[in-house]
Write a sequence for this structure.
């Protein structure tokens, strides 16, 4: 039958077909990561048999996924490899990498290795403004939803800061939600006459 591609490995065929679709189809959900960025595949891989031959000679296994070594370049024999899904997740361009004690890992890997929920770590850093070290060291004896702030070099809860500033916990919470830094909160409390710096 003319135009029909014969393949022994249906999964490998789908890898090839999906690769082509990601590069060629502007209507695909992933178009912004491939088609819209100009990611293409080499002319050699236009035909399945050439792709299949490369794959089988370069480590293809049913438990591996096709990965581009350099995400800014397209699919071709010198830029592709077969890796596990976990390894591929680490190679994504939107990963957040953090270094602590000389070790660099993704936020997901830090969460797994420390036992701290990934969303909790993310929120501590991006929602509450902790440094990465502070996010890892948050006092586990404090209530789960407590927010830690740095005041005179010490990590304190909103309630503790409120006592130190002579204001209500609600005031500190409201100021924090409005984006005030601790320094700005101290100034507000000083203006109100609640504390003397």
């Amino acid at each position: 039958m003319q135009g029909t591609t014969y393949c022994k490995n249906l999964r490998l065929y789908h890898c090839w077909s999906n690769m082509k679709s990601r590069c060629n189809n502007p209507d695909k959900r992933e178009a912004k990561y491939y088609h819209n960025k100009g990611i293409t595949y080499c002319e050699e891989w236009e035909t399945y048999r050439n792709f299949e031959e490369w794959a089988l000679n370069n480590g293809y296994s049913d438990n591996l996924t096709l990965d581009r070594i350099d995400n800014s370049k397209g699919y071709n024999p010198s830029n592709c490899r077969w890796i596990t899904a976990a390894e591929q997740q680490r190679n994504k361009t939107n990963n957040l990498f953090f270094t602590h004690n000389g070790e660099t890992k993704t936020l997901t890997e830090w969460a797994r290795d420390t036992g701290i929920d990934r969303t909790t770590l993310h929120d501590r850093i991006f929602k509450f403004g902790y440094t990465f070290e502070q996010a890892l060291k948050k006092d586990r004896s404090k209530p789960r939803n407590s927010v830690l702030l740095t005041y005179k070099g010490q990590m304190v809860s909103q309630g503790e800061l409120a006592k130190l500033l002579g204001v209500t916990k609600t005031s500190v919470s409201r100021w924090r939600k409005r984006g005030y830094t601790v320094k700005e909160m101290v100034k507000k409390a000083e203006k109100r006459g609640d504390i003397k710096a």
Notes: DSSP finds nine helices and six strands in the chain. The chain has a mean pLDDT of 84.
